[in-house]
Amino acid sequence: MLPTFVLPLIVLSAVSASPLAARSPTARSTTPISASWYTGWHATEGAPLSSVSWEKYNTMYYSFAETTNDVSSLSLVGSDGELLPQFVSEAHAHDVEAHIAVGGWTGSIWFSSNFATAKNRTAFVQTVTNFASKYNLDGIQVDWEYPNNQGLGCNTISVNDTANFLAFLQELRQNPVGATLTLSAAVDVKTFYDATGHPSTDVSGFAKVLDYIVLMNYDVWGPWSPTVGPNAPLDDTCIAAGARKGSAVSAVKAWSDAGIPANQIVLGVPTYGHSYSVSPSDAFASDKKTLAAYPAFNASNQPLGDAWDNSTAGGYDACGVYGSGSGGTFNFRGLIDGGFLTAKGKPADCIHYRYDNCSQTPYVYNETSQVMISFDNVQSYAAKGKYIKNAGLRGFALWETGGDHNDMLLDSIIHAVGH
């Protein structure tokens, strides 16, 4: 297999369509979604395709095909493009829908320009459908981070982004190949920004062309926040209104109020958490070593994350900006490898633990290293699964497949949802 950094752009304008499983454009499946994102770049870093518990999913998103400044091409550079055909074959062998996630944090740079004109939208529809046909994919997920919002920092941007995005999806749905595909969008906890730069109050048009949206209910709090806080809060209505950053509950309400029915909402759940440098004087609420809620942290001293996080620290980002520090993220399995949790997912010896009943998220703290981590565990996944069931949501999607440990998180949410 060639190294991912030498893989060429996948130019698709001349690819001829191959047959896909027929699906009526008016027939919307209501099958509950049990999904995950599979990251090609981790296939050789402890998460090979052979490790996927295919029988526990019905949908898998290969991540990512990135936008380029050429509307007729998508790039698989960095995502092990040579693995994609095997991914599709493995998925189909296990009766799992194989989707491609287009975009992502570093791959959304050119969405705005690719959708900006009718000519570009038509060309990009052809690019996407040719890609789907070439790889025999069952679905396309558009992960645009974020319309009319700078996102990464060098994304093309326009006040018309959300309107152009909808126009693209409408044309994609009318395409003969697009009509057969499952179409979804990975979205923020806030609705797409409108032309005024505020969250849209009406996104009902998207409900007509998308099968569902996936709410990325994570990175709500992180090292960029004013205090330590929950990475993926289920709810935040029990904290002061001015301190709320978003949650699954508020996100579902926002998108539902704006026109996306609950049964077209899939909850995205993380298998990772964020770390913070917290002094003992801030970490504890009392002399009894009870961990404090929302403590201050030292933003100038970002702790190292787990092996996956540290392997990407340093170098230039997609905008050409050099960054030398760690992001400080820990996957669930990385918390076990790092000695914060036992192999059973419980706090290790000498590790302080707090479960926040408001956000339904856990925290661990190593007083010696002064590292605090907000993450998700079996208990918080069960709470999220129960909410999905009670709120009538479409299902769940894990970011990412390889971050779990022995399917502990996956099994917890499946049991709670009842899929």
The percent of residues in helical segments reads 10-25%
Query: Based on CA inertia axes, which overall geometry fits?
Result: globular
Radius of gyration: 21 Å
Class from secondary-structure proportions? alpha/beta
Number of helices: 11
Rounded mean pLDDT is 92
Total DSSP E strands: 15
| Proportion in β-strands | 15-25%
- Report, as a whole number of angstroms, the end-to-end distance: 37 Å
Order of helical and strand elements: EEEEHEHHEHEHEHEEHHEHEEEHEH
How are the strands of the largest sheet arranged?
2-3-5-6-7-8-9-15
Please summarize the sheet with the most strands.
8 strands, parallel, barrel
User: Quaternary arrangement of the chains shown?
Assistant: single chain
Question: Which segments are poorly predicted (pLDDT under 50) over 5 or more consecutive residues?
Answer: 1-26
Task: Please provide a written account of the structure.
- With 419 residues, this protein is of the alpha/beta class.
- Helices cover 24% and strands 19% of the residues.
- The protein is built from eleven helices and 15 strands.
- The strands form two sheets. The protein has an eight-stranded parallel barrel with strand order 2-3-5-6-7-8-9-15, surrounded by four helices.
- Strand 3 and strand 4 form a beta hairpin.
- Helix 3 crosses helix 4 (161-174).
- The chain is globular, with a radius of gyration of 21 Å.
Q: How is the secondary structure organized here?
A:
Blueprint: E1 10-11, E2 33-39, E3 59-67, E4 73-75, H1 84-93, E5 97-103, H2 111-114, H3 118-134, E6 139-143, H4 161-174, E7 182-187, H5 204-209, E8 212-216, H6 248-257, E9 265-270, E10 272-277, H7 280-283, H8 307-311, E11 329-331, H9 332-337, E12 351-356, E13 361-366, E14 371-374, H10 378-391, E15 395-399, H11 408-417
Parallel strand pairs: 2-3, 2-15, 3-5, 5-6, 6-7, 7-8, 8-9, 9-15
Antiparallel strand pairs: 1-4, 3-4, 10-11, 10-14, 12-13, 13-14
